[in-house]
Each structure stands twice: as C-alpha cells, then as structure tokens.
C-alpha cells in the first residue's frame, strides 16, 4: 500500500505541475509563482513516483514526504483563507482542493508506512536468532 500511495502522489503532483506549467489556468497567482510551483510539482512528482518503484522505500525519505505534504497542504489552505494572493474564485477552489488532496496523500502515506513497519517487525521476529545472555 505504501508504494501505491507514493506512486499516486507522484502521478497527481506531476499532472498538476504539467497543468500549471503548460495550461496556466487563471487562478490569480503571480505568473512567476505559478510557473515555479508547477515546475516544482513536475520534478517532485517524478521523484516521489520513482521512490514508489523501489522494493523498499527508505522510511526516512517517506517521513520527509509526509511532513512536506502536511506543510504544503496547510500552506495551501492558509494561502486561500488569508488571501496571501488575490486568487480568483476558481483559484481559491483549486488551491483549497489540492491542499486537501495533498493532506489526504500524507495521511494515506502515514497509514501505509505504519502498516509496512508493523508487518516488517512482525516478520523479523520469526527470522532473528534468539539473543543469548552472557550472565
């Protein structure tokens, strides 16, 4: 499930980035910000998808992605709520929706990471040799 959650985040981020860079829908954000964020999403999406293709994604990197997603999602919602940019009505809806989606990815990734860790530690119990006491 963890690999699926990472790949899903990667595909969604890549697609949002391409939309933002190529189509540049009018959302009320300065063009430079919009292009920069779009390019970031393209490269981020490729990286997260690639991590999801690994046999065992590095737990520390996954935790960084989860934290980053939570920060990105919260920032998106605050940006819309506090009018940090003069967003259009459609822009506000898009920014809040993608913020909520990114928080959803973080939750899905966290649940999957915990599940993978629990499954890994359960299988390790049966394969490790018993420890010996030196007493």
Work out the number of β strands: 0
Structural domains: how many: 1
- Rg from Cα: 19 Å
Could you give the distance between the termini? Answer: 44 Å
- Oligomeric category: single chain
Fraction of residues in H or I helices:
over 70%
SSE ordering: HHHH
Largest sheet: none
Low-confidence stretches: 124-128
Organism: Lentzea atacamensis
Protein name: Integral membrane protein
Keywords: Membrane, Transmembrane, Transmembrane helix
Tell me the layout of helices and strands.
Elements: H1 2-23, H2 31-52, H3 59-81, H4 89-127
Helix pairs in contact: 1-2, 1-4, 3-4
Task: Give a verbal description of the structure.
The chain has 135 residues and is an all-alpha fold. The protein has one domain. Helices cover 79% and strands 0% of the residues. It is built from four helices and no strands. The longest helix is centred in the C-terminal third of the chain and has 39 residues. The chain is elongated. This is Integral membrane protein. Keywords: Membrane, Transmembrane, Transmembrane helix.
Features:
single chain, 135 residues, mainly alpha, 79% helix, elongated
């Amino acid at each position: 499930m963890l690999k699926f959650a990472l790949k899903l985040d990667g595909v969604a981020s890549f697609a949002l980035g391409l939309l933002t860079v190529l189509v540049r829908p009018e959302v009320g954000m300065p063009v430079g910000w919009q292009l920069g964020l779009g390019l970031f999403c393209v490269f981020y999406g490729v990286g997260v998808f690639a991590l999801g293709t690994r046999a065992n994604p590095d737990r520390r990197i996954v935790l960084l992605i989860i934290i980053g997603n939570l920060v990105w999602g919260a920032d998106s919602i605050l940006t819309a709520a506090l009018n940090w940019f003069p967003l259009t009505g459609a822009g506000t809806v898009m920014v809040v929706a993608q913020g909520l989606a990114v928080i959803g990815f973080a939750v899905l990734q966290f649940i999957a990471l915990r599940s993978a860790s629990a499954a890994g530690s359960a299988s390790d119990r049966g394969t490790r040799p018993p420890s010996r006491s030196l007493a």
